Amino acid sequence: MAVEQYMPDFAVERAYDVTLASLQKEKIKAVFVDLDNTLIAWNNPDGTPEMRQWLHDLQDAGIRVVVVSNNKYDRVKRAVEKFGIDFESRSMKPFTLGIDRALKRFNIKKNEVIMIGDQLMTDIRAAHRAGIRSVLVKPMIQSDSWETQFNRWRERRMMKKIVAKYGPIDYKKEI
């Protein structure tokens, strides 16, 4: 398992630190974002006012936001419908199924999109496999749903390998 496959292109504290200016500088026209612990805390479905403002700013600028989540359709729909954003559920990350579906569905070129997520093992790995740039964020809260806990254990092992090869990941304030 090559460390490079899990190394994010960018790392920021939170998804909302991916600024409109930085997206425009990178010529990004779409943002794929994980749902739980990235866009919203897995136990807070309403999100924060800051998150709602971020979505509003991106949408106003014509940047499409698509949630790409491994969760079931009903769970993702319930979580994002109040924000008026598109989604792909049952994405099967670390495989590229959801990313590929979203690219095709919205006619997005790979060099015009980034994937933002809080997990190396699913979000970052899927982005690399799909050939798109990745942004690692710190999880919004430290507790995870039970399904995610096994991935976190694997992720800690991979993070040690990344640190050994490249040094600690430097979380910036924007991409």
Automatic annotation (TrEMBL):
Signal peptide: none annotated. The keyword Hydrolase applies. InterPro entries: HAD-like_sf (IPR036412), HAD-SF_hydro_IA (IPR006439), HAD-SF_hydro_IIIA (IPR006549), HAD_2 (IPR041492), HAD_sf (IPR023214), PGPP1/Gep4 (IPR010021), S-2-haloacid_dehalogenase (IPR051540). Transmembrane segments: none annotated. The keyword Hydrolase applies. SUPFAM superfamilies: HAD-like. Keywords: Hydrolase. It holds the Pfam family HAD_2. GO terms for molecular function: phosphatidylglycerophosphatase activity. It comes from the Bacteria. This is HAD superfamily hydrolase.
